[in-house]
Each structure stands twice: as structure tokens, then as C-alpha cells.
DNA sequence: CCCCGTGACTTAACCGGTCAAGTACACTCC
DNA sequence: GGAGTGTACTTGACCGGTTAAGTCACGGGG
């Protein structure tokens, strides 16, 4: 089926291509009557502007890019990204921007993809997640002057727009809550230590534990996968002075930890309290349902997309703080057994 | 930063734009020496062909589209889609095709998105999931002559390329296995009944149960969410003659079912055996780990992407059967207690 | 009556590739 | 020596939009 172009509309309306372009874009230069006639014809023949032609003549590509840098096996089960993506979509769809996705294996590959996308004029901007210390992607974004918004990390991305939430505050709340319940041997299973938000959380965790006099607070690094979550949990629980509460950096590891505890015959929350991060439906799915640090992930995504569209339109906003995760107590936390 | 074009390369190499185009695309018409020189310059200045210009002059957009038609809250936790997506990517990335994503609310919206994408020449083809009976999308795909591959559903999509797996065979295997263990009150919690693969499974389930003389085999429809999975499970377990085994249409509902059983004080697998569909890491994460109908979801996705690229290149292949899901026994199934 | 301003268009260049058709030159062969 | 055949390019049209610049008719003011 031959797809209609503005030339087709022009012919049928008996005007020039230019007039059609003005009419469709709401620009002055055509009378109201002609505009209506042209719009009616466009509607009738199901016209959609060729995005390539539009992009070619200097306009936007009307697409933004997202790279995901986690192994496929983690992506599938990690609710975080899908939550983010559906948030992006809510915002982008409304402005009829498309979202282009690419799964990569390393930050270096991400840089390659950014360069390629930008060179191909395929996208107008990118959303950057999983910020690291001295992230290789930031200088490239600046060099390319590629509009971007960085999720997580406040101030670490130089001049690039950033959106972040106060993870330190959230973890502090979680620790205080556990201490209030009577716990004093609290451990933590963290995500990938290279990631900036992991470091923020670790620092805050150490700080609040120190300030509350919890001397044996320990963080075991893991990688967000269930397997590593199980391994870390096992390591913590077979020790002599085993913790009475564990905080996990995501819900997948928390669920895995719960399974390990059950497998070892420990009761949750009787023998072990569990706090998860990122309250996906997964947390309420298991038994007992997990106490979690909740936040509106898809709202976070929507906000990020909004900021990116701002950045693309040249309205720069330096640094946006999103809602802080708040504690949602459920059945997996209780005072420790005496 | 000004992005380099073939004109820039042409100037530096002292040849015409046309020669550069031939050189970059591996076409005859330039000498080997010139080609090398041009490629070196392209490499040096970091050239990437403008995809809009390329698409405009009749070539491919080098992008394929995927619409996801499930509520955001399900998408996040449903490992199936992310598995598929990472499979697509593995294949598309290798051919440097981009994947464009759109989350929609209804099949009608999906149709709209297809029309828009096609009109905008934004994509070369689409991947269609969640086939329904008399699916409204199929005639539109044919009308637009939009290359497509339909996942799930063999024969129901007319002339469109399809890829499917033998879900009936898989569920038959699961029922036979449970019967061999000694179960005869087997229930099933299904996915959305409108979806074609749900119907295939239901039919096969009823058939094998009838042939094995299981008279009270019942299917409770749900919608793939944890909440519905819990509700359906509760409904099944509070009845008088409660089943000793339940088969779930996805792993999220199976995990929810496990939690309900534990909450009701039933032991799994002692009092209740559980079989999940789509063996994501989630199944091995919980305690006990779930027996599942496994398949290589991301391999399935890769195969679908391959078929789509074939269809785009005009190499039509009618109907491809993917690997049948096979039973992976784990801790959630055992003979029923006498 | 003429000039000027304005609204409603048309014209044509341009974006950055692709590709059919044309050209220039070397080389072979009768 | 001239026709014929390649090879290695160049030229220029074209894809489908956008947009600056140009045209033309009409109306009002001096």
C-alpha cells in the first residue's frame, strides 16, 4: 500500500506542498478555511508525516534512547527497569515520542551506542541509568552535546540534567525502624558496589549504624541477582553471631534471602527480619509479605522522561530530587525473639 | 558538535558523495585502494550514516517495533516480556537494528500505533504478542503489508509469519507427571482467557484430564497478576475437595499461590504440589523452588526476531515451531500425602 | 490614481543519503 | 587505428518533509 505524502494531500486540495506543511503544523500562512480542508483530507486518507523526512529537514527525530546494561538473566526478573520503562512511556507516548531500547553488556558499549544513535540522528536524547563513579558516559554525553537525564546521582554528572532520590535518608529510616523494634545485629546485602547509588547507601548505612552504636553492622556486596542474594544471605546466617535483620538493596535478593532463611528452618520474622528495597508487587506476593522501602518507580520514570523532554527543548533544569523511598512495614519485620 | 556527513568524507578524500556511498556500502564502483582510504577517513572522524536520510531514500528504517499491551503494574514483574526483549535484542543488535517500544492499553491502541509507525516509516516491521481470537491486529497488518511475526498461535494469523510452541503438549506432560506422582485432583489457574494460547492450554488440559479420568479437573481464569493468582488459589483451596496439585499459567501466579498455601498452613509439596509455567529465575528463588514448564524465553525471542528480519527481507517463512516447554521438576512437586 | 502593507499562497532550496545514468580513461583485440 | 569493453569514478535526480524568499491580489490611505 502506497503511503500518502503531503504531495498527495496537496494535489487533492489543489494547493502546494508548502501550504500543506503550514496547515498541518498550525503555522500561519494559510487561511482558516484551507487549513480545515487540508486537515480533513489528511484525516481521510490517513496521513502520517514521514518521520525520516521530518528528521532530515532539521527537526527532531521524536525518539529517545535507553540502554540497559545488565545481563539478560537479571533484566527479566528485575521489576525496576520495567517500572521505569512504563513510566517513561506514559510521558513519551503523550508527546508521541518513541522509546528506543538497546541491551548492552558494558558501559563502554553504552558509549558506543550513544555515539551511533547520535550520529545516525536516531534519537533526540537519552536516559542514563546505573551511574558509576567517574562514569565514562558523562564526558561523552557532554562532548556530543546529547541531551540526557541521569537517573540517580546528584551532582556527579556535571552539567547533565539529573534526577535522584535520597537513598541515604531512606536507608537511615529503615535502620532506625529496625533498631526501634529491638534489633542491634543488622546486616545489609548490597547491589553492585561500582554503582553510585550503592555507595551512597553503604555510606549512609555505615553512618547511621555507627551513630546508633551498632558495631557489627556489615554490608555484603552482591549483584542484584537471586543467586548472589542467596549466597550472601547464607554467608550471613551461618556465621556465629548471625544478624537478626537484613536489609536488601532490591526485592529480588530479598525474596531469595527469605527462601534461604526458610530453607535453614529460620522463621521470618521470628528469627530474622527482612527489609527489601524497591517495593514491586513481588514483595506482597511472597509469604510473609516483605517490609519494603517503597517508591513510585514508574512515577520516577515519568518524571525523568519529563525532564529529558525539557532538556531536548533546551529548557535546562540542573538537578531534580524525586520522592524519597518510604518504609512500608509488612509481615517480614518484627521484634527479634529474646 | 557538527555531525559528519558523507559530503565531509568526500571532501577529505577528494572524491564525490556517490563514491563514498559505494565505498561505505561495499558496493562495486570504487577501487580497493579508494575504498580503504574512505573507510579509514570515516573511521577517523567517527562517521555514522544519518538514518533519516537513509530511510528517506527508500532504504530501511532499520528499526522494528514492539507494543506491550498489559497494565504497567503487571509488566514490571512479568519476566516473560523482558526475557523476550533481551532475546530480540541479541538478534537485532547484531544486525544493528533498533527496537522501538510502546506500552499501550488495548489492542485497538496497538493498531493505532502500528498505523502511525508505518505511516511515519519509523519501523520496518513489528513483533506481535498476545494473539487473541479474531485478533483485530492481523487484518491491519495485512492491509498495511507491514512485515510482522506473530508470537504464539499457529495458523490463526493468516498469511503473517508466525512462531509458536506446543503449549498443549507441555501441559499434557505436566498433567501426566502429576498423575504419575499419584495426584488425581488437579486444578489449573490460567492466564487471561481471551488470549489464544490460554485457550490452547485450556483445551489440552481438559482433554488430557478427561482421557486420564480426572473428572474434577477445573481451570480458574485469572490474569497473570499475583493478586489474581492469590485469589484463584484461595478459592481453590477453601473448597471441600481441594486439589492436591495446581498448575499455573505463569510463574508470578505460582509464587503467589505458594504464598497463599503457606499462609493457610499447608505444606508444599506435602499438601499441595505446584507447577509453574515459564521458568524464570523467580521459580528457583523461592522456597521450595518451583517445578516449572521451562523454555528458553530469550531464545524464543531471538528466533522471532530472526524470522522478522527474514520477513522484512522478503524471505517469507510461514510458520515456525519453537522448542516445546519441558518439565523441570523441583521441590514444589511430590506425591500427595495419603 | 498610485503606493504600500498584508494575507494567502507558490516556488525552490535544503537536509543527507542512494542509485541510475553518464563520462573519462586505460586496455585489449582484430 | 579504431571499435569495443571494463573500471573507476562523477553527476544529478530523488526520497518527503521544512522554510526562507518570492509572487500576487486586494484594500486602504494619502
From TrEMBL, chains A, B:
GO terms for molecular function: DNA-binding transcription factor activity; transcription cis-regulatory region binding. Keywords: DNA-binding, Transcription, Transcription regulation. Residues 4-58 form the HTH lacI-type domain. InterPro entries: HTH_LacI, LacI/GalR-like_sensor, Lambda_DNA-bd_dom_sf, Peripla_BP_I. The keyword DNA-binding applies. PANTHER family: ALANINE RACEMASE, LACI-RELATED TRANSCRIPTIONAL REPRESSOR. This is LacI family transcriptional regulator. It comes from Actinoplanes siamensis.
